[in-house]
Amino acid sequence: MTYKAEYIWIDGSEPTAKLRSKTKIIADGAEPGTWGFDGSSTNQAEGRSSDRVLEPVATYPDPIRGGTHLLVLCEVFNIDGTPHESNTRAQLRPVADRFAAQQPLFGIEQEYTFFKGSRPLGFPDGGYPAPQGGYYCGVGADEIYGRAVVEKHLDNCLAAGLTISGINAEVMPGQWEFQVGPLSPLEVSDQLWIARWLLHRTAEDFGISATLEPKPARGDWNGAGAHTNFSTSAMRENYAAIIEACEALGRGDKPLEHIRNYGAGVEARLTGAHETAPWSEYSYGVSDRGASVRIPWQVEIDKMGYIEDRRPNANVDPYTVTRLIVDTCCTALGA
Ligand code: ADP
Ligand code: MN
Ligand code: MN
Ligand code: MN
Ligand code: MN
């Protein structure tokens, strides 16, 4: 007998990478092995030398197909064995290793927006819904659009064994959030990419698409972010480490280095309005949803816990955001 292995990888699309997948039939008892694909069709190769290599790095039970079928997350390599330039997971690996003793943990809040055709789900044809106010964590058909898809996606994530900490309806109609974590840098990033794949795949069966666009609707509507919550063992034990992490993110060139890698179009989302801080001015504060980095109120009371970097866009690459935060904060905390 055989099972189906859905090989999932991240492509080379600019400015934001896309998920790709294809199916391999594997004999029962055999592991998903190395495979290949046509990189010229995914912006990862020229047609003249198009072969790229898929190397499995994590497997999950496939909640769509059920049974013994698997989802297989892959890294992309060149045929000479070097990581492909689009392979940002390979760049995270050595940084995660170097600072593993500090036990970094991440929880990422993935916001996204459903679309039906060319309009956000819940936006009437040719018009606009009532202004923001009642939609966030709302209930009822006048405020909530797409809950059946959201529930199915949550069940699929849990059946795949992902560490989801919660879900909620967001500020704009058709906008939702799920949170992955807390987990190590590689685990949270792998699981976020799988949860994203499951989101697109689950919505597909409802004839609905999901986008990670940071500004899916023009006008007075909230954007979509990927707030990135972070702690180390020191931060989970003392407040001086919490403050040092916040300070480290604001030192020298760090604010710009981070912002440049926090997702395409981040400047358009971090305007200073709609619960954001302006991208050009780094700030941190307790309970402040208008700051770049927020210290949750409970963390100030407990004098330990985690911080929330509110800047990353919904379309951010988690391998990159976790690499930068670990590098910046763990270097400072380890000094
Ligand atoms: P918000 O109030 O900003 O909407 P959420 O409840 O959506 O907060 O998300 C908080 C996130 O913080 C969750 O993903 C959770 O897993 C994560 N988290 C909790 N504790 C820690 C910790 N010690 N280190 C890192 N992340 C954490
Ligand atoms: Mn072919
Ligand atoms: Mn949240
Ligand atoms: Mn949110
Ligand atoms: Mn948040």
Termini gap: 55 Å
* Ligands bound to this protein structure: adenosine-5'-diphosphate, manganese (II) ion
Work out the number of β strands.
14
Look at the structure and give the mean pLDDT: 96
Model regions low in confidence, pLDDT < 50 over at least 5 residues: none
Q: What share of residues is helical?
A: 25-40%
| SSE series | EEEEEHEEHEEHEEHHHEEHEH
From the alpha carbons, calculate the radius of gyration and give it in angstroms.
20 Å
Structural class: alpha+beta
Structure, explained:
This protein has 335 residues and is α+β, with helices and mostly antiparallel strands. 27% of the residues lie in helices and 26% in strands. The protein is built from eight helices and 14 strands. Strands 6, 7, 8, 9, 10, 11, 12, 13 and 14 form a nine-stranded mixed sheet that branches. A five-stranded mixed sheet has the order 2-1-5-4-3. Strand 1 and strand 2 (19-27) form a beta hairpin. The chain is globular, with a radius of gyration of 20 Å. The N and C termini lie far apart (55 Å). Bound molecules: adenosine-5'-diphosphate and manganese (II) ion (4 copies).
Key phrases:
9-stranded mixed sheet, ATP-binding, Gln_synth_gly_rich_site, binds adenosine-5'-diphosphate, alpha+beta, glutamine synthetase activity, binds manganese (II) ion, 335 residues, Glutamine synthetase, nucleotide-binding
What's the short story on this structure?
With 335 residues, the protein is an alpha+beta fold.
